[in-house]
Design goal:
Number of helices of chain B: 10
Distance between the termini of chain A: 34 Å
Helix content of chain B: 40-55%
Radius of gyration of chain A: 22 Å
Number of strands of chain B: 2
Number of helices of chain A: 16
Structural class of chain B: alpha+beta
Distance between the termini of chain B: 40 Å
Shape of chain A: globular
Number of strands of chain A: 13
Shape of chain B: elongated
Oligomer: heterodimer
Strand order of the largest sheet of chain B: 1-2
Helix content of chain A: 40-55%
Largest interface: A-B, 39 and 29 residues
Strand content of chain A: 5-15%
Order of helices and strands of chain A: HHEHEHHEHEHEEHEHEHEHEHEHEHHHE
């Protein structure tokens, strides 16, 4: 990843300070001091699309601004590789999957090929963060590694399909630590398992404040009615996000309360099932004029930002969810979120405080109607929602925990770490 | 154990620290009270610390019904209100150390098991996950030479600072005092005896960190306002 100039890194730090306050940035500087010059390498399988890539785009420059030699590489593979890793993803989320021996062999071969390409960087790095199962075998392929290796699982692995987990566990066991988003996702492993929820970047194009005219343009761009309530789900077209359930909820709620629904998503380059799910969604919407199914390009961040800001309510009706960055994004814009009662959504949607947790399309419909009829509650929840994200889910907290983990691993996991002159 | 204000000599300035916790899963989870009792005897002592105090640094929207995670689980996971009440009244500072606290918890749980005709169970998605934490301590660079200087400043301290100096200190120091009281005790004479007594008399276990900050600030304000009269 191309390194930014010192001046632009310093400007970036000043911008974060304006949002989070000086003490937060001071803490980061103290934590980063013992890590100055450390070579930190992140590896995942896509630069665009999905929450992991989004976080890394910001986390890397922030680490660099703190004097850490942070870098990010991706592994690449053929269609069978992504078919296999999508199978892993589904299996970790509890879906019964049969992954053929041929696909597994291709998975291992792809990792060997990528290892050759990345060997010198992987060997020399002081810390290597491997994101999700795609690059997990790399550790075993680098026996002469010198740094600490951390496996970061972004997936709801609370009830993995055992057969597949047994296979993946062989690759993950030798890591020095792993990171899960929630305690419920942690698995019996012989190394420390840190609990670090992901985060959003308040300065990114997806979350920064927008001028009113840019929000208003959304209505004409997508044929929306500015006078009619708008509910929105932003997600990849993935069955676990339950887009069809959202349409059912909309149909139930709109019988008595006029409203419009936007389903906005893009594809991730490592998700081969997206197109099939998009077709299912289009079929379910059946051309209804107030259901808008949008396929947005990976860089449509300002459009998503504007859609979320134009919405009255944000939905994230997932059936399984590792974290759900779109929930934090919605809350950050002062919108209550109606979310599936699962995984990382439970961490963000505090029932009746920042939104509602639901288990069925009926539940989502009921809460949607309630909030549209009780504008006072909608406003109140929205205000709490923004504060909640500021205190818990901004990238500065995420970075602080990554730095703590790195300092902790170099201090042999002491329970008490003093930094600065503490 | 270190002194309340670190290794600083008594009467040296009060050094304001800040802190944050990072959560670590122990990988141990239980679904019924019998499993809970067995695990409680052996779980790392850091897990006892985390489930008693770590919750204070978590975002809460309402008044905590119970003041430790074990009691909350007894109520919401096992639906055993009696046990929840009993676990909630186990006060950490009544015990010499966390091992003593652990022993008392085990006693309470085993007593409850003896009384119960059936072992209380939780649903599969309501299991208790034993966690522990690493605490990272920051130096804010802020120093106060005299207690009166703290009066306008306490309300501006971060919740992390309040946690470190008021909650963590009671577990960290041999005297089981908060850091403010330990520092005040280092001044000659009995000038700050009443202030120290009021601070030590505060029960922080049902309050959020913001409430504790407000209470500490009020105690300081009242003490120095009286001195001015």
């Amino acid at each position: 990843m191309k390194k930014q100039s010192n001046q632009s890194l310093q400007n970036m730090m000043a911008e974060y300070q304006a949002v989070t306050g000086s003490n937060v940035m001071q803490q980061l500087e103290q934590l980063a001091a013992p890590l100055k010059g450390a070579r930190v390498l992140h590896i995942n399988s896509t630069k665009e699309g999905g929450g992991v890539a989004e976080i890394l785009h910001k986390l890397i420059p922030l680490k660099q601004a703190l004097g850490i030699e942070a870098d990010w590489d991706i592994i690449t593979g053929n269609q069978e590789f992504y078919q296999c890793t999508k199978g892993f993803h589904n299996a970790l989320q509890g879906m019964r999957q049969s992954i053929s021996e041929k696909l597994l062999q291709n998975y291992e071969k792809t990792n060997r090929e990528n290892e050759e390409k990345l060997r010198s960087k992987l060997k020399e790095a002081d810390f290597v963060f491997i994101h999700d199962p795609q690059p997990a075998p790399l550790l075993k392929l680098i026996p002469e590694r010198r740094g600490k290796w951390i496996w970061r699982c972004h997936i709801d692995a609370s009830k993995p399909y055992r057969e597949v987990w047994k296979y993946l566990r062989e690759w993950i066991t030798p890591y020095d630590a792993s990171i899960f988003s929630l305690p419920e996702f942690a698995q019996p492993l012989p190394h420390p398992q840190y609990i670090i929820p992901p985060s959003i970047d308040p300065l990114s194009e997806k979350n920064c404040p927008l001028p009113d005219h840019e929000i208003d343009n959304i209505y004409s761009e997508f044929g929306l009615d500015p006078q009619m309530p708008l509910i929105t789900q932003v997600s990849r077209y993935d069955r676990f996000k339950d887009p069809v359930g959202v349409i059912e909820a909309y149909k139930l709620a709109s019988k008595l309360t006029p409203m419009q629904l936007v389903l906005a998503g893009g594809g991730a380059s490592d998700d081969p099932e997206g197109e099939a799910v998009l077709n299912e969604v289009k079929q379910a919407s059946n051309g209804a004029s107030n259901i808008h199914v949008l396929l947005l390009p990976a860089d449509a961040n300002r459009t998503i930002n504007a859609l979320q800001r134009a919405s009255d309510i944000i939905l994230q009706k997932s059936i399984r969810e590792g974290f759900g960055l779109t929930v934090s994004e919605g809350l950050w814009k002062g919108k209550p979120v109606i979310g599936g009662d699962t995984g990382g959504i439970r961490l963000q949607v505090i029932d009746h405080y920042t939104g509602f947790l639901v288990r069925t399309p009926e539940g989502a419909a009921l809460r949607t109607r309630y909030l549209l009829h009780r504008r006072d509650k909608l406003e109140e929840m929205g205000m709490r929602a923004k504060r909640f994200v500021r205190e818990n889910f901004l990238i500065t907290r995420h970075l602080r925990e990554y730095l703590t983990l790195m300092v902790g691993l170099t201090n042999e996991n002491d329970e008490r770490i003093n930094v600065g002159n503490a | 154990m270190q002194n309340a204000t670190g290794d600083i000599q008594k009467k040296s300035p009060f050094a304001v620290k800040d802190c944050a916790l990072i959560t670590i899963a122990t990988g141990i989870k239980v679904q019924n009270l019998k499993e809970f009792a067995a695990v409680l005897k052996d779980v790392p002592v850091g897990s006892i610390y985390h489930h008693f105090w770590g919750r204070l640094l978590r975002a809460l929207f309402d008044e905590p019904e119970y003041n430790n995670d074990f009691a909350s689980w007894a109520s919401h996971g096992l639906h055993d209100k009696q046990l929840a009440e009993q676990l909630s009244m186990v006060i950490p500072t009544d015990y010499k150390d966390l091992e003593g606290l652990r022993q008392e918890m085990v006693e309470v749980v085993e007593q409850r098991l003896d009384e119960s005709e059936i072992v209380p169970w939780a649903k599969a998605d309501q299991q208790f996950h034993f966690l522990k934490s690493q605490i990272v301590v920051f130096d804010t660079g802020i120093r106060y030479d005299h207690p009166a200087e703290l009066v306008p400043q306490i309300s501006k301290l971060s919740t992390g600072s309040i946690y470190y100096h008021f909650i963590d200190a009671r577990n960290r120091t041999d005297e089981r005092y908060d850091d403010f009281s330990s520092w005040l005790n280092g001044f000659d004479g009995d000038e700050f005896e009443e202030l120290t007594r009021n601070l030590c008399g505060m029960d922080p276990y049902f309050s959020s960190l913001k409430e504790i900050r407000l209470n500490v600030s009020t105690i300081f304000q009242k003490f120095f306002a009286k001195g001015e009269q």
